[in-house]
User: Which sequence fits this backbone?
């Protein structure tokens, strides 16, 4: 099954570590994303230091699963690399989805933890990870091998689909 349909937010993890090769494969998926004018205004911060990862739930109120995560990726937008103003969120969201889908294909559990536009989370994460002024953390992706099974969700609400005109 395609990773698009298999993917669910996984918030419980085993203690099995994700290899460096697999983490690099996820980062490659992020780097492969489309972006406006191919501006690629992203930075990815790979977190493998468990003590550092555990600091994030002290900043982000809905990220307790990070206490059990094997690794995390912080997806950031670089305003100085944004040649087409206003597109960085879309570019970095595309990169985030690529990582989530690739993780699902590799049977790695993941969940998107929203940071931007919540000011307190943005400032807290920037301070924790020494992120420069021109770079904004969009989200944290929590990663680990699943310790919970989630069925494929029926989200196929075609009442939200419009044909030719709204
Ligand atoms: C922009 C965004 C922010 C999110 N933030 C959080 C979060 O802070 N904590 C969390 O546990 N899940 C978060 N999620 C995951 C959603 O809760 C999840 O995608 C949704 O409930 C649908 O479930 P599914 O991913 O299993 O299909 C976020 C998802 C998105 C797209």
Assistant:
């Amino acid at each position: 099954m395609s990773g698009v349909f298999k993917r669910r937010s996984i918030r419980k993890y085993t203690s099995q570590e994700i290899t460096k090769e697999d983490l690099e494969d996820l980062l490659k998926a992020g780097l492969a994303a489309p972006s406006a004018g191919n501006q690629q205004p992203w930075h990815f911060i790979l977190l493998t230091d468990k003590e550092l990862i555990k600091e994030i739930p002290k900043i982000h109120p809905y990220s307790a699963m990070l206490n059990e995560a094997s690794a995390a990726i912080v997806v950031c937008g670089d305003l100085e690399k944004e040649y087409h103003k206003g597109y960085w969120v879309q570019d970095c969201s595309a990169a985030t989805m690529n990582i989530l889908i690739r993780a699902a294909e590799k049977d790695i559990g993941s969940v998107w933890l929203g940071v931007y536009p919540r000011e307190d989370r943005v400032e807290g994460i920037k301070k924790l990870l020494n992120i420069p002024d021109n770079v904004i953390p969009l989200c944290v992706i929590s990663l680990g091998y699943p310790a919970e099974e989630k069925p494929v969700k029926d989200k196929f609400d075609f009442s939200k689909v419009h044909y030719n005109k709204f």
Notes: The mean pLDDT is 97. Residues 26 and 38 are 20 Å apart (CA to CA). The chain is about 30% helix and 20% strand. Residues 3-148 form a domain with the NADH Oxidase fold (CATH 3.40.109.10).
